[in-house]
User: What shape does this take?
Amino acid sequence: MKYLAIIQARCGSSRLPGKVLKDLVGKTVIERVFERVKASKKVDDVIVATSIERNNLPLIELCASRGIRVFIGSELDVLDRYFQAAKLFLPKYVIRITADCPLIDCKYIDDLIELVDEKTDYACTDNTSFPVGLDAEVISFEVLKQIWKKARLSSEREHVTLYVKNHPEEYNIKKLICNFKGAAHKRLTLDHLEDYQLILEVYNHFANLNKADDFDTADVLEFLDKNPALEQLNAHIDRFEGLNKSLKEDKTVEFEF
Assistant: This one.
């Protein structure tokens, strides 16, 4: 296998508990994310990676009922969760997607993969040009294994690829630039109730057009440009809220392998 997409998901979000199971016009958030990633022309397989916490049982049961494969690993050490899941498949590359991106666009996943060559260690969507919520990363399995051994900060264990970003001189890194001018300030992720309200409006709009399963980033941006008040719902939320919290609480952790 060359490209394995792993969607990290859990039910225990502190800011919006159970967000991955919230309804988006007849399907849950995790189903929407899974289907939008699955639509990629270049990804070979897609799995969900969650944790052993009991509150994730509804998520696990839902995935099982929908035929979605689930890996169950560490709650806090998400880097270990990714590596252990990927090790079962031994792909050449792992695509990292988070379940708080129900507007993820398979086109950009494929464009990101197109950037990858034999020398590429890591590639990602550029956060200075892409809206938050369209984030995708590609990391070689060998580099994932390497950082799994090297990462010692709790933030680097939680945020999976942060070790690469903290040590860019060690890796061949590429970034995909968004082709929509001015899109970077838009917030299309799901982390707060206000985010859910906006995303639900987006899905309701396309459901009314019988396109809930078939719309892309261009469609979303056009809809938001025509309805600018919607963007004020979550405009006050810090894009890097989760990462900043992890960095503030950062500590060195012991890890055995």
Q: What stands out?
A: DSSP finds ten helices and nine strands in the chain.
